[in-house]
Design brief:
By secondary structure, the chain is α+β, with helices and mostly antiparallel strands. Helix content is about 20%, strand content about 15%. It has three helices and seven strands, in the order ααβββββαββ. The strands form two sheets. It has a five-stranded antiparallel β-sheet, with helices on one face. A two-stranded antiparallel ribbon has the order 3-6. A hairpin with a 4-residue loop joins β4 and β5.
């Protein structure tokens, strides 16, 4: 059952990836920034999600779905093919689609921040929240078999049995808890997401809270 649930969760994560990627293709000719969460200067009046600076994935997904306007004529999500059902499953309860704000307990994803097209496809962009975000690295110059850490707050989905990952490029990857090591997560490869001499913000990850 856990294995079956991990497959379903992976498909939901890929749906999120595909929705964001398709929307970015539409936004680029318009001169709009990527929909992946970015490190932006503080602003009191952001007019687009690309100008916002999120500190957690729950607020990001709430904005992505235009949750503040849900149920009104103004409701206009930034992407097609995404709703709050993509955030639930395998023990993570679904969010009630009412006026209330999306809550962390209804969001199973940690999401990559400052994702760029030039990053290698081995890099995760979505990871189930039961993996501690600090286990995800910005650069990996030496292959390491260091154990990954499981999150102490979020036991669902999967506890310490599975981790589900969606990599840049849309590939779904599942790691059993007994094999949860850094080299397994990154396919025994090294990589860099920071660019020497560049002022581009470093890669980061946003957990649900």
């Amino acid at each position: 059952m856990v294995s079956s649930n991990s497959t379903a969760v992976g498909c939901r994560g890929k749906d999120i990836y595909v929705a964001i990627t398709a929307a970015n293709t539409e936004r680029e000719p318009l001169g709009l920034s990527s929909l992946w969460p970015q490190s932006n200067p503080p602003t009191n009046n952001p007019i687009d999600i690309g100008q916002m600076n999120f500190t957690n994935s729950t607020d990001y997904f709430y904005a992505l779905y235009d949750g503040a306007n849900y149920g009104t004529e103004k409701h206009d999500p930034y992407v097609k093919g995404f709703d709050y059902s993509k955030l639930a499953g395998a023990g993570v309860p679904a969010h009630y689609l009412g006026k209330c704000r999306l809550k962390p307990e209804n969001n199973m994803w940690t999401i990559g921040k400052n994702v760029r097209d030039t990053m290698e496809d081995i890099v995760p962009v979505l990871v189930t929240r039961n993996l501690a975000a600090e286990s995800l690295v910005t650069d990996l110059e030496v292959v390491s078999n260091r154990h990954l850490l499981f999150d102490q707050e979020w036991k669902t989905p999967f506890g310490q049995k599975y981790i589900v990952i969606v990599r840049k490029g849309g590939g779904i990857y599942t790691i059993r808890g007994k094999y949860a090591r850094l080299n397994i997560l990154y396919g025994n490869q090294t990589f860099r997401t920071t660019v020497q001499g560049s002022t581009a913000p470093a890669r980061a990850y946003l957990p649900p809270s």
